[in-house]
Amino acid sequence: MIAPRSLWIARLTFAEAVRAKFFNVLLLMALVLVMLAGFFQRFDFGTSQLKFIVDFGFGAVFLLGSILTLVMTTQSFYQELESRSITSILARPIHRWEYLLGKLLGVQALLLIFCLLTGLILAGLLTWEERLVLSEESGASEENVVKQSEVFLFLGVQWLRFSVLAALTLWIACLSRSSLYAMFVSFLALLACQLQYLAAEMYADAETKAGLWFAWFLKTIVPNLQIYNIGDLLVLESVQEPLNQSLIGSILGYSVLWYFAFFILAILFFKDREV
Amino acid sequence: MQQKTPAIALIDLTRDFPIGLRGYKLRALEKVNLQIPAKGIFGLLGPNGSGKSTAIKIILGLLKPSAGSCEVFGKPAGNLESRNRIGYLPENPHFPSFLSGRELVLYFGGLSGMNHPQVKERAEEVIELVGMAQSAHRKVRTYSKGMLQRIGLAQALVHNPDVLVLDEPLSGLDPQGTQEVLDLLLTLRDKGKVILISSHLLTRVEEVCDRVAILHRGHLLKEGKLDQLLQEQGNTHTVEVTGLNEGTTAVDLKKLLQANNLNVESIQAARRPLDRVFLDIVQKDKETEKS
Hints:
The complex is a heterodimer of chains A (275) and B (291).
Chain A (H helix, E strand, L loop, with lengths): L3 H15 L2 H20 L8 H34 L3 H5 L5 H41 L11 H28 L3 H16 L1 H10 L3 H13 L23 H26 L5
Chain B lengths: L7 E12 L4 E13 L4 E5 L6 H9 L6 E6 L2 E2 L3 H5 L1 E4 L11 H11 L4 H14 L15 H13 L5 E5 L7 H16 L3 E6 L2 H4 L5 E6 L2 E7 H6 L17 H11 L14 H17 L1
Parallel strand pairs in B: 3-8, 3-9, 6-7, 7-8
Antiparallel strand pairs in B: 1-2, 1-4, 4-5, 9-10
Helix pairs in contact in B: 3-4, 3-5, 4-5, 5-6
């Protein structure tokens, strides 16, 4: 059961974040980008119409969702620290881990809204385009059959990615001294996580013992955020390799592991921090 | 007879702040020993930078002492039990502006671990107590400074703490707002709350404090009952006389005192503090309007 005090913090964090201009601008941008996917697809001649919309929509969600996660997590943490309103909160009979959990849950709730709204628009657009394609081509192939529910499955997986990223950002915020620094380092950490597969490749190809250890160390301490890129396995009936259900389970387990690892690190760094 | 446990006890309390990478330390508090009794209003006085806020942060568990200790009703400061017995109003409180006064009090009640029916009932009580019942539905961003302080007091009181810790509660208030807050503190004292006020506005705090401690550069210079501290002036007295006629009066008074072998250093017309004059004028105006 989640500590009720964390839920109070989460509610306020969420209420503050949805009022933030940054969130609303980014959400609007994401929705517009997804809607414009149908327009941009006319510049693409290599893939099918629907495949382009899926790739473009998923790309927009990943990019803007990652920015949103970095900025909102850092902002929600530093806003109270810089305005010193955190002293009124931590002077209450509340554990510091409850405070951090509340912050994290509030940001996760915000990201859930972001994923749901962009998912709705994307699923709607795909349905619309599917009808257009089917009406234009009387003998349309399986390539044009869309599984809307998988749009939400993909966005659920992205939400897990954003949750891990939020926990990572919170940890970085706990050890940083300014919001700008925290945001910058979190961005670098995101890049490192996206490129973690290079360390795994280096590990496989290592020729010296030192190289092997170094590559092992890197691939162990950095989570691999590429595992969430399962867009190619979803949505369209025509995909080469259909989704293996156990993959979702392993992504979930991987996310829980890293989420709690970063959360525990955040607690350790925040435990004795002067506020 | 068993001695009553003090509400707050600072024992050899020292706090250093590291400066820069070379390990220099700024000593904000040095071996401060202080007991705040479980009754009345206690003033922690001193100029800016004297260590008042550091002491308060340690009492609240927001900072850890470098040496020595701090206890709240005999328990280490900072643990949940101690914090549950303290209500805190920071200096220039910054509350989420989109909440109404009532929502703010409910939020802080929830943070204190109260369940919803409990906090709802208690919130109405404290909002009434601080005189904000008419404005509790309004957003916090529409409040004046005085209203913010009062709703701040309501949030500090919502979980019914035994001790109220108020950091510069009069800072930025006009004389009328100051008087309202001071009156409220006296009401709370009468209801049995222990109140610790940190302030550098000595003249106003003087009106309500039972005991005071004076800090300067991290050292405790003086501590005791306010009346005793104010009377520690040797054998010099101020004499206030009314009913004298203009012109001859001061000379007559001087002659009278000299006839009794008293040395008169100076005679001046009595002055009243400006904020007191202002308050009286406003009060008179209010009474005129009422009548």
